[in-house]
Description:
By secondary structure, the protein is α+β, with helices and mostly antiparallel strands. Among the domains are: about 10-145, Alpha-Beta Complex (Hect, E3 ligase catalytic domain fold), CATH 3.90.1750; about 235-315. It contains twelve helices and twelve strands. The strands form five sheets. Strands 7-11-12 form a three-stranded mixed sheet. Strands 8-9-10 form a three-stranded antiparallel sheet. β1 and β2 (about 15-20) form a beta hairpin. The termini are far apart. The model has no long low-confidence stretch (mean pLDDT about 85). Bound molecules: zinc ion. Zinc ion binds near residues 164, 166, 188, 191 and 198.
Amino acid sequence: MTTNVPYGYKKNPDDPQKWIIDEEAARIVKKIFALCMEGKGPSQIAAQLEAEQILNPTAYKQREGRKTPHQTPENEYRWHESTVAYILEYMEYTGCTVNFKTYTNSIWDKKQRDNPMENRKVFYDTHPAIISLEVFDKVQEIRQQRHRRTATGKSNMFSGLVFCNDCKQKLYYSTTSYFEKRQDFFICSTHRANKDKCSGHYIRAVVLEKEVWKHIQKVISVVTRYEAYFRSEMEQKLRVQSEETMRIHKKRLAQAEKRIAELDRLFIRIYEDNVAGRLDDERFAMMSKNYTQEQKDLKAEVKSLQQEIDEQERQAENLEQFIQRVKKNSDLTELTPYALRELVKAVYVEAPDKSSGKRKQKIHICYDLIGYIPVDVLLKAEQA
Ligand SMILES: [Zn+2]
């Protein structure tokens, strides 16, 4: 369907309908995704590519003697933020083809509109992948969090990943250009807006990093040394958890589906009442509006419940994937932003406990794909 082959691919000389990987450009695409995983935003990535004198896609295609709809750029190394953002969201890099990305409303309104993802058609494995689906999904997650950079322009690898254990809102990264890095801290965003609504949950960035890194090192140690043991213990833990969540989700799902059907019947009834003159038009309009809204909300809820149930059913797969990710990071000597994003989904920070006279503060690490890992229990049980 596309006549222009996207940056990162080239036409297969034996079959011009097919794309093959263009190694040189694909290396840049991979680099862009890796930089995003490290926590860099599109404008920072664009600036880095320019500094490294990497040809932008238009200049690159022209050098290769390929057709491009764009004019020769003034500066061949100038990367636009929007180009980088486009690449980061381009699902075709995972080896699939996405159709019906835009649609027009009617034959009179020719304006192209973005079609929501659920209305698009995706064909998998239509060409070789440059980016794994796993990395692609992670990058979309990171982009959605769009962690704000502070006024000083500094950002921290934990930005967007840390939450308040009480109000469950994000912890806000705070830094100034005067202090040294040791002084940077995270603070509950609810507290920041209104001091009465939640306590500070203040934690210094270096302390957070040290604690999380310590925990990750233990996880790496258990997984690499006692993989089979880790697998069976986590399988059991996930099964118990999952049975409970599945039970709740399925019950709620059944309720929602029942109510949707009931609303259909109610709607027919008020319609008949309206036609028969038992219900005036104004009331009918109001009631039908309410029913429609309720049904719409319920349908959205059913969809998300179904997704969560599907997710639970994939837990064995998720556990394997997590183990592979840990093993891939087994030689890590310090915590990198990339590894952090790969392994950790969220960190919850408790309010400090000063009852002993010392400031003690607990954090809970929710790992990607599998949630909490009782690593100290696992280590103790294995060593006993
Ligand atoms: Zn809070």
